[in-house]
Each structure stands twice: as structure tokens, then as C-alpha cells.
Design brief:
Layout lengths: L20 H12 L3 H8 L3 H8 L7 H11 L3 H26 L1 H5 L3 H6 L9 H12 L4 H12 L6 H5 L1 H16 L8 H14 L4 H13 L3 E5 L10 E7 L2 E6 L6 H17 L6 E3 L6 H14 L2 H8 L6 H11 L3 H10 L30
Parallel strand pairs: 1-3
Antiparallel strand pairs: 2-3, 2-4
Helix pairs in contact: 2-3, 4-5, 12-13, 14-15, 14-18, 17-18
Amino acid sequence: MAWRIRMISITEFEPDYVVPPGEILMEYLDSLGMTQRDLAARTGLTAKTVNEIVQGKAPITAETALKLERVLGRPAHFWQNLESLYQAARVREQEQAHLVSDLDWLKRLPVAAITKLGWVSTAADPCAQLDLMLRFFGINSVTQWAVLWDDQAVAYRRSLHFETHPEAVSAWLRRGEIEAHGIACAPFDRSRFRAVLDEARVLTREPPEVFQHKLIALCASAGVAVVFVPELPKTGVSGATRWLTPDKALIQLSLRYQSDDHLWFTFFHEAGHVLLHGKRAVFIEGDGAADEKEREANRFAADLLIPPAAWRSLLAAGRPNLTQVQAFARTIGIAPGIVVGRLQKEGVFEYKIGNRLKRRLCWVTPCPESVESAG
């Protein structure tokens, strides 16, 4: 293993102790046999000001540092650095107290899951872990988290589940935001994105190792960042849609139910939000009751995946069997599991029927594929 040597600047030095500048100043005065009154007379500072600096009640300003340089012979930056380190230490001490008071917020976050996923490092000290979580969120304090969440909460379509665990939901959303920033997108183009969705239908028949990268690249070409982010405990989210900038939309998918029909319906549902609804709106798909915009997005996804005329033709002769479902899926160019999911959702199939035609999806580790069979 090779070790690399690097230079560090004085600003990287963070001692675990700090001496008040006034104490150093008194040491210099004692060594020179000079009193505080003598220093005041030589610098032009008032005796009160000198005494307050010695006691740590007044800071050493840039002007004072220059005066000390002339009288005591140590450069101005020496005194300014002492003051800077001292003030920084005081701030860190205050911040530490704030962190201790905010540890209850840390307990409401699924830290174990977040660190296991590698989003944030693990720290043995609770305050250090809290600091890492604040950095993950890109905020200075728990107060700012509350401001950001409350500021956007009105726009979220949230179920009661989300109301109970907003910290977990916000962490999942934040991870999606971080990943989306890493995706270079063309400016949003509505007509291009609509064309991309037709290409995405074909990808529903591909395995994850093929469709995931292609879907991300296709959507990025139209100004939409698609990210796949594992669901965190206590969130119950399937997907989310929001706009990062006026020219960049974000579609976030959790793979919650680990089946291709649910994943693809969620993707096209979120795409419906992008095309049908305003850029200021934010949508989170969970278990809450659907409002009008959710119903619009549902209809958009259902009709794009299976055109209404084709759907009517499938049901024209009554309930189809699984062989007919497979043939129908091939004809319209989508995965058979999507057809099964629609039949189950609309009550044509019981939920136990046809599941072998669905593909099981999962994160990282290989998953056994369901057999496409008419059994």
C-alpha cells in the first residue's frame, strides 16, 4: 500500500484545546515587564479595552493586531490567528451543545438502514452521527430541516403513514435528489419526453440490467432524471416526482413491491405527473387516498401501457387465460406481468392468479426470475 504525503495549511489545524488570546498577551507583557496600562499607552488603546482583551471579553481586531505587532514584535497574523482559533473553538462548543439538544431527531431517522446502504458513514458518537446526517441533508441544523420539510409539505400528496415518519421520507427524497444531481440532463423537452415514453414501453420486456441504464439515458435526453433508490423503513413509498429546476424533472422509484408490473406502472404514473401537472407540484406515491391529479396520472399510465381499444379487445370474449395474456402482451409490445397486474387491479383476476408471469426485481443481489408460463 502506497502512502502519499501532502502539505496542509494552517487552517486545517483543529486542536482539541484552545488558549484565549488574552492569556498569550499577558504572557508577553509579563516577559517584557510591561503592564496593561503600559500597553494601552504604547498602542493608543484604552486601558479598558486592553483589560477586556486580556479577560476574553473583547476580540483582537485586525487594527488591534497591527498595533500589537508594532509594540510587541509579533506579526499581526499571529494575533489574528489566535483570535480566529479561539472564536472557532467557542462556536464549535456552542454547536456541540446544539447537537446534544437535537439528538431526539436522530432517533427518528432510520440511521441503521441509511448507513447500511452506504449513504452516510457510521459514527460511534451520537453527536458525530448527527453531524453526518446534517451534512447528508445539506443543512446546518435540525431547525433548518423542519423549515425545509414544512415549507414543502403542503405540496406533498402524503398519506397518514408519511405524516408519522416524515424524517424517513425526507431521507429517501434527499438521496434521490443527490443521485439526480449526478445525472447530466438535456433541458426538459415535453415532446421529446413523450416520445421517450413510447420507447420505454418496449423496455418493459427487458431484464433490469438492460432496461435500467437505457431508461435513465433516454429520460435524461429529454430533461428528466430517473433514479432508483431503495425504500427506507417506515416510508411506504413507491415513487416520487418533482422538479429540481425549471428544466430538470426528477422521477424517483423505490422498487417497493419488487415486481415489474408495479415498477413500470409507477414509472409511467410519475411520467404522467411530469407531463400533466405543474412544475411547482411534488408528488409522493404511497398508500394514501388518490386525489384528482393522482387519478389523472393513473389513467395516463394505464392507457399508455395498454391502449384502451386493445384493453377492450382483450376482455371482449370474457376473462382471458394466461396463454392469451402472453400472446396479447407480445402483440402490444409490453411485459406480460404488466397485463396480469392490470387484470388483478381491476378485479378480472384474483391476486393469486398469473403471478408467475411477473418478473421479480430486487436490489444488488440476483433474484430468481418468475417463469413466463401459461400454467
